[in-house]
Amino acid sequence: MPDIVQLLPENIANQIAAGEVIQRPASAVKELLENAVDSGATEIKLIVNDAGKSLIQVIDNGQGMSETDARMCFERHATSKIKNIEDLFHIKTMGFRGEALASIAGVAQVELKTKKAEDLTGTYIEIENSVVITQQPVATPQGTNIAMKNLFFNVPARRNFLKSNPSELRHIVDEFIRVALGFPQIFFSLTSNGQQVFHLEKGSLKQRIVQILGNNYSAKLVSVNEETDYMNIYGFVGKPETAKKTRGDQYFFVNNRFIKSAYLNHAVMNAFSDMIAKDSFPMYALFIDLDPSRLDINVHPTKQEIKFEDEKIIYAFVQSAVKHSLAQFSITPTLDFDLDASIQQSDAVSQPFTEDKRSAASASSLYKTFTQKHQAHFIESKSQLKHWDEDKSLVNGQESFSVKDFEKEELKSFDIENNFLELKEIKKATGDDLLQIHGTFIIAQNQKGFIVIHQQNAHERILYERFVNALKDKPIATQRSLFPATIELTASDCVLLNELLNDLQLLGYLVEPFGNNTFVIQGTPADVVDGNEKITIDKMLEQYKHFSNDLKFSKREKLLRSMAWQRSIKPGTPLSQKEMRGLCDDLFNCEICNSTANGKPTYLEFKKDDLDKMFGK
Ligand SMILES: Nc1ncnc2c1ncn2[C@@H]1O[C@H](COP(=O)(O)OP(=O)(O)OP(=O)(O)O)[C@@H](O)[C@H]1O
Ligand SMILES: [Mg+2]
What's the CA-to-centroid distance between 7 and ligand 1, angstroms? Predict the structure, then answer.
C-alpha cells in the first residue's frame, strides 16, 4: 500500500481554519477592526455593503506595513504581535495568533493598500483564495486600507448559511459597538450601503456610551471606579430606573477586550438585586484591567471567552465595586461593599506577583494549554457555580412565568382577612353588573360560580387575534397624523425597526425612515391616543428585543406578541361598565379565550360547588 497521509494545500487549510475564525461577515469586521486598533490608529472607518456580504472595508491611519510585511501578513501564523511563548503572558494587543488575515484571504477576494509613515510609496496587494494576484507600488496615505469582497465566494455552502441582510447587519453593528466602546479615544465611523450609521468622535468613555446607547443615558450613568494592586475596575452602570426588559446593553471588557461571561454578569445582577424588577436588566459597560499573566485569552477561537487565574476574586471585586458605586450615589442603602475578608486576605490579592510565582505559573496546566491553539476548553468551574444559569431563564422571562406561579400570585389576595370584604363586594355584583377590583381584575358572576378576569391578559389575547387577522387579510386602517412625530433611535434599533416597517403598516402604523437614525410616524391606528405613538413604538421595540433570542418564533410572531402586550390595558386602569362588558364580549369571541399567546391565563374560574366544599357544606 502506498503512503496516504499528505499535507493539505495551503488554501484548503486556510479555508478550514477560517471556519472557526470567520463565521459570518461580523467576525471579519471584528478581526479587521481589531487589527486597525492594534496598528495604533486614531481614526478607523468601517464601510460595508449588503451587510458585509459583498464588501467589508476598514480604513485606518495607523502604522501601516512595509512591502514585505504586507505580503507576509496573509501567511498563516504570521504575526508581529508575539515572538515567543513568554509574550503570551503579556498580551496587550487584540490579535496574537496570526490567523485572521490568512483566514480572510482564504474565503474572500481581498485588496490591501498600506503605507508606513517613513516610506514614500505604499504597497497594493490583491489576493484571492490565498493566492496573490497583483502586487505593486501605490500612492496611498499612511495607514492601512483593506477591502474584502464577496465573502465565501469560494465556499457556497457557507454563503448559503448566511442570514438575511438585516440580521447580518445587526451582528456587524454589535461587533462594531463592542470595539468602539472599548476605545473611546479613537474616532470610529460605520457606513452601510452608502449611509452613515455611526460617526463617533473621540472623547471620554461616558461620551462614547451616550453616543452609542442613546441620549437617555446621559444623566443616568453611575460611575464605577475601584483600584487595587490586583486589578482595576472602571466604567459605568445605568441607574436602576434605566433597567430594561432586554439584556442588550451589557458589556464587559477585560484589558479592553469585549468578553462574554455569564458568571461576571451574575455578579453585577447580584449587586443590583432588590433595586430592579426580577426580569429586567441594568445597563453596564465595565472595564477590568489586570496583569495579562493572570488570564488566558486563548481558550476560544474568537477570544470572547477568557479564563481568569482566579475568577472568584474577580466576581467579588465586580460585585463589591458595583455595590459601592450604587451606594455612593445613594441609590442603595447597603454599605456592605467591602470585599469578603477571606478574599481580601488571600495571597493572590495581598501579595505582589513575584518572579517565583511567574515560574510556578508557567509550570501549571493553564500555561500548557496556551500552546494548544483552537482547543476550546471552557471555564470548568461554571458547573460548580450555583445559580449562575438562573439568568438564562430570564431571557424568556415572560414565558417562564408559569400558570402555577400565576395562580399562586392571584390566590394570595384571597387571604382570610380580605375574604369577607371581597365576597361582600361580589355579592353586590348581582345581575349584569361587572365588578372591577384593584384596577386589575374583573369579577363576573356566572351560573356555576364566578370568574376572575385579568384585564390586561384578556386584552392582550383580544389584540393578538385582531393583529393576526390584520396581517392575514384585514389590515388595520391608518389615520394620518396632522403633526407627525419623529422618533430617534440608536443605530442598532434602527436596523431592527427597518425590518418591521412593512408589517407595522398592516397593523396601522405608517412609519418612514428619515435618515440619521430618525423615523417619522406618519400615521397610527385610529384608537391610539395622540402623543402616545412614540412610546408605543419604543416600548414595542423593547419588548421585541426581549423576544429576540427566542429562535422558535418568526419575526412576525415576535412583532404580534410585542405589539399585543404593549397596547394592552395596564393594571391600575379604571374601566367603565361598558368597557368591561366590551372586553368580556371580545374575549369570549376569541378563538382561544383562556390564555394569552404567551400562555398566561386570561381568567380563572371559581365553582360554587367547590366553594361550598371549602366551607364544609
Ligand atoms: N491594519 C493593520 N495595520 C498594520 N498592520 C496590520 C494591520 N492588519 C494586520 N497587520 C499586520 O498583519 C499581521 C497579521 O494580522 P492578523 O490579523 O492575521 O494576525 P494578528 O492580528 O497578529 O493575530 P490574530 O489572528 O489574533 O488577529 C499583524 O500581526 C500585523 O503585523
Ligand atoms: Mg488580527
Answer: 25
Among the bound ligands, name the one nearest to the CA of residue 79.
Answer: 1
Give the phi and the psi of residue 266 in degrees, each rounded to 5.
Answer: -65, -35
Ligand 1 pocket test, pick from 79, 110, 127, 299 with the greatest ligand atom count within 8 Å of Cβ, gives 79
Residues 451 and 532: their CA atoms lie apart, in Å, by 32
Least confident segment among 341-350, 379-388, 547-556: 379-388
Chain mean position to CA 308? 23
Does any ligand 1 atom lie closer than 6 A to the CB of residue 26? no
- Using CA atoms in the order 101, 105, 111, 116, what is the torsion angle rounded to 10 degrees? 30
Decide: helix, strand or coil at residue 420.
helix
**HEC string for 66-131:** CHHHHHHCCCCCCCCCCCCHHHHHHCCCCCCCCCHHHHHHHHCEEEEEEECCCCCCEEEEEEECCE
Q: Which ligand sits closest to the CA of 21?
A: 1
How many Å from the N-terminal Cα to the C-terminal Cα in the chain? 92
Residue-wise DSSP of 574-598? ---HHHHHHHHHHHHTSSS-SB-TT
Q: Answer yes or no: is the C-beta of 39 below 6 A from any ligand 1 atom.
A: yes
| Residue 483 pLDDT > 70 | yes
In the prediction, which pLDDT does 123 show?
A: 97
Q: Cell triple for residue 220?
A: 443616568
Q: Give pLDDT, residue 127.
A: 97
Give the atom of ligand 1 at the shortest distance from the alpha carbon of 64.
Answer: 4
Nearest CA to ligand 1 atom 24: 95
Nearest CA residue ID for atom 8, ligand 1: 35
98 lines ligand 1 (CB under 6 A): yes
CA–centroid distance, residue 35 to ligand 1 (Å): 5
In 3D space, the residue among 18, 55, 59 whose CA is nearest the CA of residue 36 turns out to be 59
391-448 tens-digit pLDDT: 333 333 333 333 333 333 333 333 333 333 333 333 333 346 789 999 899 998 877 7
- Torsional sign, CA 560, 563, 565, 569: negative
The closest ligand to the CA of 102 turns out to be: 1
SS3 at position 382: helix
**Is 65 close to ligand 1, i.e. is its CB under 6 Å away?**
yes
Contact 360, 293 (CB under 8 A): no
pLDDT in tens, 309-351: 888 889 988 998 998 888 877 544 433 334 444 444 444 444 4
